[in-house]
Amino acid sequence: MKSVTIRFLFLATALFGVLSCSNSEETEQAVVEEVPAYVLSTEKMSDVMTDLHIIDATINLGYINQSALIYNKAKLQDSVFFQHKIKRADFDSSVVWYGKHIEDLKSIYEDVTFKLNKKHAEAQR
Fold first, then answer.
1. Rounded to a whole number, what is the distance in angstroms from the first to the last CA of the chain?
2. What gap in Å lies between CA 73 and CA 71, rounded to an integer?
3. CA–CA separation, 58 and 78 (whole Å)
4. Highest-scoring range by mean pLDDT, 13-22, 53-62, 100-109
5. 37 to each of 25, 86, 92, 93, 100, how far by Cα in Å?
6. Are 40 and 18 in contact (CB under 8 A)?
7. Which residues contact 116 (CB under 8 A, 6 or more apart)?
């Protein structure tokens, strides 16, 4: 009798484990979340972030007068948003969303890195 109970518990535990594993795989596949309409596309984010990183590099390399740095940085960032026809709030909301979707953010940064390296190579010619 005791061996039947142990077998039952073993089988129940094994069955529970198998069902848990298959259920989590289904859940992972079902979690693919659609990007909300207010979030900038990965391509647009990549373009904007590339330009913002160029501004940061320009500031960090000292090409902008340090006494007017805060004012100039905000103006330069605003010019990037204007150039890409977006608002700062659109960008900020997208940063928050992509911050919760790391794989998408990683993809964006890979593209930004590629673009910055390409621009750097072109500037070296």
1. 84
2. 6
3. 15
4. 100-109
5. 27, 14, 14, 11, 16
6. no
7. 50, 53, 54
For 49-67, how does the pLDDT look when each residue is reduced to its tens digit (9 = 90+)?
Answer: 999 999 998 888 877 776 6
Residue 118 to residue 9: CA distance in whole angstroms: 61
* Cα–Cα nearest to 106, from 29, 49, 36: 49
DSSP 31: T
Of 78, 44, 75, 72, give the one whose Cα is nearest residue 59.
72
Token match 């259920």: residue?
23
Place of tokens 């890979």: 110
**Burial class of residue 47 (count of CB atoms within 10 Å of its CB; 0-12, 13-18, 19+):** buried
Give 79-92 pLDDT, tens digit per residue. 999 999 999 999 99
- pTM, full prediction: 0.70
Whose tokens are 């330009």? That residue is 51
Q: Among 78, 77, 82, which Cα is nearest to 54's?
A: 77
> What single DSSP character describes residue 61?
T
Structure tokens at 77: 């960032």
